[in-house]
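[audit] Reproducing an earlier prediction to check determinism. Same input, same settings, fresh worker. If the tokens differ from the archived copy the diff job will pick it up downstream; this log only records the rerun itself.
[audit] input (327 residues):
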Amino acid sequence: MTRFGYTLMTEQSGPKDLVRYAVAAERAGFEFEVSSDHFSPWLASQGHAPYAWSVLGAVAQATSSVELATYVTCPSMRYHPAVVAQKAATMQLLSDGRFLLGLGSGENLNEHVVGSGWPAVDSRQDMLEEAIHIIRALHSGELTTWEGAHFRVDSARIWDVPDTPVPLGIAASGGKSVNRFAPLGDHLIAVEPIPDLVSGWNAARGGDLTPSRAIGQIPICWDPDEDAAIDRAYDQFRWFAGGWPVNAELPTPASFAAATRFVRREDVAKSIPCGPDLDAIVQAVSAYWEAGFTDIALVQVGDEGQDRFLAEAAEPLLEKLRASSPS
């Protein structure tokens, strides 16, 4: 059965609002909630970037049933992997086993801030692989020392280790990363509905590992007024048009504003379902389950209108999604 989630978009909402939205999303019937982990918004018009881990800790106490996840955390530059391991273990305890640690190789936008430069993609993936091994070792609760190509861990131990292990979701975008990370992670994370990603991930894991979930994400912009929805999506989400090879490299919101100055309002309207038509949203989301994704998180674009979406549209939309998706 396909599961549907709600995205806590830290780039577009403040921390107290995000906790409030998380509670409303659980009440509306979403089965999981994912949080971005950003130091900066994509565009200045989004206007927010609270610390995701503080928000998630508050959400863990304010909710009772939804699964929680980072989507995604880079455990190699802004955070040392030992610190990520500690944070994830604590989140699993606070949420009573509802936490999934989503990991990826990061974006320049968020990681350059610590002044360590921005490595090439091959180096970033080497760092991610090493970080995964460190996190796994520390989650054993054993005293860990590590001397690797990129990281050093000196006699470290996670003292509060959850009984339920923290599952790892790994972001992958192509065959090379799928083959590399499928044996290391528990679940696939991807933001494009490409069937080969899912089938390739499952094939690379082989028959000896437990079955994986494939967790996708799609932006939508529901609003009773279609023009208002398109305007909001254009203002807040035109950065999305560049694609991840571009999005991973730009360093600042000003860079994204410059890179998207020729993106047109109609371009955004074609790529993001906008307006009150729930069937159009279902049609857009269906590309993910048709590609084999088991879990799909919705991003309702913009802080404005978030309360109304959760109060008026979320429940009927979920009903339509569940009626249309594979059971």
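[audit] rerun output stored. Observation attached for the diff report: Strands lie at 3-8, 32-35, 67-70, 99-103, 144-147, 152-156, 168-171, 187-189, 214-220, 295-300.
[audit] end
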